[in-house]
C-alpha cells in the first residue's frame, strides 16, 4: 500500500480487499469487552479537522486509541490556524513533532495532496472539499459486502447532490474497483460538469429521473442498494432547486419510493453517509427502515479506519492486527 491515502484511486482492487479483510478482524475487536490491542503502540496520529465532523473524527480517534496509538485531535478553532498560520506552516509544524500520521479534513479540494508533498509522515484524507473521502467509500464497501457478498455485478444507485459530494466521487471509484455497476441520479443542476466522460466507463450510468432507475428500468436493471447523499446547503451559493419540497418530490427517498423498492427486492439496502437531512433527501421511514444500514456504516467506520491505520503505519515489527480473544476477555455481543 502507498504511504498516503489521498484518493480512492490510490488503491488497487487487491489493496481494497486487503483493507476490508483486515477491517473484518478489527470489527471482531469491537464486539469484545476489552477493545484494545497493542498493534500501533508507539505510533502517533494527529487528527486535524479544519471542517466539522462527528463520524469521521470520532471514529479515527477511536480507531487509533483501540490500537494503542497516541492520538491527538486538533481543529482550526483552537489551533494557530485561527491566527492566520498557513496550511503549509501548520502541516510542517505538526510533522516536525515526529508524528506518524496526519488525518486531515479540509474544505479545500486538493488540500491533502498538497500536505502530502510537505510532510514526511503519512497523510490520510478524511474529506477534502468536494474532492474525495476515501475512507467513507471503504466503509460503504465494507457495509455492502457484509450484506451482499462479492460486489462484482451488483447494482448500486447513488442519488442526490453529486456536485458537492466527495462521498460520491470516492464511492464511484471504489465500487468500480470492486466490480459493481453504479448509476448516479441527480437533478441537472446538481450533476457535476464533465460527468459525461465518466459515463463512457463500463458499468457507470447517469440519470436525471429517479423513479425509472429505482423501478429497475435503467441501464443496469434491478437495484441492490441505494445510497442517498446529503444536500450540502452549506456549500451552495445559489438556488440549485426551487424548493425543498420539490427536491424531495423529485429526488428524495420517500416512504412511497421505499415501499416500491422493497416490493421489488425485500433485501435492498439503504445507505446514507450522514449527517442526514431527514425529510429532505431521506424520509424518516426510509432512514429507520429494516433495509437501512446507516448505523452499520457508522460501526464499519471504526473497523475500516483501524484497518487503514494498520496498513499505513504497521512496520515489520508490528504484531498481527488483532490477537486471538483470550479466555478471560470473552465477547460481549
Ligand atoms: N460521513 C461523514 O463524513 O460524516 P461526518 O461529517 O460526521 O464525519
Question: Mind explaining what this structure looks like?
Answer:
With 333 residues, this protein is α/β, with parallel strands linked by helices. The protein has 2 domains: 8-132 and 301-324, Rossmann fold; 134-296, Aspartate/ornithine carbamoyltransferase (Rossmann fold). Helix content is 38%, strand content 14%. The protein is built from 12 helices and 9 strands. A 5-stranded parallel beta sheet has the order 7-6-5-8-9. Strands 2-1-3-4 form a 4-stranded parallel beta sheet, sandwiched between helices. The longest helix has 20 residues, at 294-313. The chain is globular, with a radius of gyration of 20 Å. It binds phosphoric acid mono(formamide)ester. Phosphoric acid mono(formamide)ester is lined by residues 53-56, 127, 136, 273-275. This is Aspartate carbamoyltransferase. Carbamoyl phosphate binds at residues 55-56, 105, 133, 136, 274-275.
